[in-house]
Design a protein that fits this description.
With about 140 residues, the protein is of the alpha+beta class. The protein is about 35% helix and about 25% strand. It folds into two domains: about 40 residues, no CATH class; about 70 residues, no CATH class.
Length: about 140
């Protein structure tokens, strides 16, 4: 034999195949902590979070968010006790505000009551957002 080693040589994977395996291992997060690959993955995530423009996140801070209460006891006068009730709450019970208010107060008041009157409170665009409901308890 002409001095060559007759042992079979394992075919080395091509550079493209090695790159594909590396990308796959990054996507599947297969590297242990404290390895350079893990550090690279964490660095890429950090850079994405820091360098992406804010318009991709679509979140805005809330300044002085007000708690949303569906029923608020306001005051009492000659007509009775005035409650401010969310229009969405009443609409979820019945399309007719009078019937809806009776049902809402029957569920929420533990004593007998008489519904005196209902007055819609409208937003600037004309939609009803609240109802002022007077109840005689």
């Amino acid at each position: 034999m002409n001095g060559m080693n007759d042992a079979p040589t394992a075919a080395r994977p091509s550079a493209l195949r090695r790159l594909g395996r590396t990308v796959k291992s990054f996507i599947l997060w297969q590297h242990e902590r404290a390895t350079w690959q893990y550090d690279v993955m964490c660095g890429v995530i950090f850079l994405l979070v820091v360098l992406l423009p804010a318009r991709y996140f679509h979140d805005q801070p809330l300044y002085n968010p007000q708690p949303v209460l569906d029923i608020v006891r306001m005051d009492a006068d000659a007509d009775g006790v005035r409650y401010r009730v969310s229009a969405e709450l009443l609409a979820s019970y019945d399309p007719e505000p009078q019937r809806a208010a009776r049902e809402v107060f029957a569920r929420n008041l533990s004593h007998p009551f008489t519904l005196v009157r209902i007055q819609p409170i409208r937003a600037q665009d004309g939609t009803v957002v609240w109802y002022d409901v007077w109840v005689r308890e």
